[in-house]
Design goal:
The chain is of the alpha/beta class. It has 3 domains: 195 residues, Hen1, N-terminal domain (c-terminal autoproteolytic domain of nucleoporin nup98); 43 residues, no CATH class; 197 residues, Rossmann fold (3-Layer(aba) Sandwich), CATH 3.40.50. 33% of the residues lie in helices and 24% in strands. It contains 14 helices and 14 strands. Strands 2-3-4-1-5-7-6 form a 7-stranded antiparallel sheet. Strands 10-9-8-11-12-14-13 form a 7-stranded mixed sheet, with helices on both faces. A hairpin with a 3-residue loop joins strand 3 and strand 4. Helix 3 runs antiparallel to helix 6. The protein is elongated and about 85 Å long. GO terms for molecular function: metal ion binding; RNA binding; small RNA 2'-O-methyltransferase activity. This is Small RNA 2'-O-methyltransferase. It catalyses: small RNA 3'-end nucleotide + S-adenosyl-L-methionine = small RNA 3'-end 2'-O-methylnucleotide + S-adenosyl-L-homocysteine + H(+).
């Protein structure tokens, strides 16, 4: 497995060989380091004032990988592509041998850190789960000129066709730290695999290496999902944090997204005021936008927010300034809507805003029992996307839903049937409202159901 990075002289007063200062590796020496099943070599095939080329060569022992990487998947096979393919093994090696450059530090020549170098990166065996087009989609928005050549399965047997590997070359002008960070994140994304276990610490790595560019990348959802190996709780947490960095909602397809969110919040506040609710719990409160509006209104004597995401609750608490200005009326805590929780019982109203569509259909029954049967507030307000309106969003991708974590989206008749069934089983009457601007026969983008507990005669 090999990567070559070539740098041209970035300025008349800066020879190309100064790249060695940035990489913290002397051009006249060969560095060799061993980490488990991987031996990494760093050497300079070319070093002149006009051009400097550094090569990173990985020698991977597939047998040792089997012993250290478990007995499943590609790492469980003694014969695999890891010694040859530019995978997460290469990303980790880059993080080890170029740690100071990746962090944007250069003690000997700090003036070089922010220099934009004319660079050429070559990855002769790059695995692509998604084909060569994915390489272009990932790197071109970052300013790289991309050339890819699909490699055959076997040059001697043309009938076998193409492999999933490409010979990729990237050219562009950027900081060395940025180029290394993009490789660190995107190599395992292209492979759609990692050789190590992924936990919460990977979110911090992703934001540390990708925060400056990933928040605005058009493929940030795909990158986040693949980098975190499709672990939904981690992906949602990371997308929320990236959305905060980008200062826009994580949902990229509701246009304009902030305006529809404002419409939803205004509609919920109007209905809560109309109902005369004083004690309100926001179930799945996210980052606390509705909570902040409720807390600012003195008519609400108790305002509670719950969410399964600890990260979202921290953001909500920070926005509510609960650490600096405690309010006895307001509190937030972690809770799952599919498990009984006595802390959400006894409220005048409960809000489920853009929540139900994130629940797997087999788990909806548990949510219904917990919210309508056990917590049993006087009123329940439920908002969810109107699937009929999706034809007005030409930018929808993938499964055609508005958010990558949506398990389903209901049409208005489907939502009405669900609401009627829940109401009849748990003793609620239901009325329906549209939220946002209606477009022809497709209706409003959001649908709102207001459940009210029936009073025994």
């Amino acid at each position: 497995m090999i990567l070559t990075l070539s740098a041209q002289r970035p300025a008349p007063e800066v020879p190309a060989g100064d790249l060695g200062f940035l990489l913290h590796k002397h051009p006249d020496r060969v560095l060799t380091s061993e980490h488990g099943a991987v031996t990494t070599h760093v050497l300079y095939p070319r070093n002149t004032p006009e051009e400097c080329e550094v090569a990173v060569l990985l020698d991977v022992d597939p047998v040792a990988l089997v012993r250290t990487g478990g007995d499943t998947g590609v790492l469980g096979q003694h014969v695999n592509d890891r010694p040859y393919a530019a995978s997460s093994l290469l990303a980790v090696a880059l993080g080890r041998v170029f740690s100071t450059a990746l962090a944007g530090r250069c003690t000997a020549r700090p003036d070089l850190v922010d220099v934009r170098w004319p660079l050429r990166l070559r990855l002769p065996s790059l695995p692509c789960s998604g084909g060569p087009a994915l390489v272009h989609r990932l790197f071109e928005p970052l300013g790289w000129r991309v050339r890819t050549t699909v490699l055959p399965l076997d040059e001697t047997v043309p009938a076998w066709g193409e492999s999933r590997y490409v010979d990729a070359e990237l050219e562009g002008t950027c900081r060395v730290a940025d180029a290394l960070a993009q490789l660190y994140v995107l190599l395992p994304v292209l492979d759609d695999a990692k050789h190590y276990w992924v936990g919460e610490s990977e979110i911090d790595k992703l934001l540390r290496r990708g925060g400056d560019w990933l928040a605005t990348h058009p493929e940030r959802e795909l990158i986040t999902r693949r980098y975190l190996l499709h672990a939904r709780p981690l992906v949602l947490d990371a997308l929320d944090r990236l959305a905060e960095l980008d200062d826009r909602p994580a949902d990229p397809v509701e246009e304009p997204p902030a305006r529809l969110a404002d419409h939803r919040r205004a509609a919920l506040l109007a209905v809560l005021a109309e109902l005369g609710a004083a004690r309100v719990v926001d179930l799945g409160c996210g980052q606390g936008e509705l909570l902040r509006a409720l807390a600012a209104d003195a008519r609400y004597t108790a305002v509670v927010g719950t969410d399964v995401s600890v990260r979202a609750l921290r953001t909500a608490s920070r926005r509510l300034r609960l650490d600096r200005q405690p309010d006895d009326r307001v509190r937030v805590f972690q809770s799952s809507l599919t498990y009984r929780d006595e802390r959400i019982a006894g409220f005048d109203a409960a809000v489920l805003s853009e929540v139900v569509e994130h629940v797997d259909p087999p788990r909806l029954g548990a949510l219904e029992r917990v919210v309508f049967g056990e917590a049993a507030p006087t009123h329940v307000l439920v908002t969810t996307p109107n699937a009929e309106h999706n034809v007005n969003y030409p930018g929808l991708r993938g499964n055609g839903l508005r958010h990558p974590d949506h398990r389903f989206e209901w049409t208005r008749p489907q939502f009405a049937r669900w609401a009627a069934d829940v109401g009849s089983r748990f003793g609620y009457t239901v009325r329906h409202l549209g939220v946002g601007e209606a477009v022809g026969s497709t209706g409003a983008p959001t649908q709102l159901a207001v459940f009210t507990k029936e009073v025994a005669a």
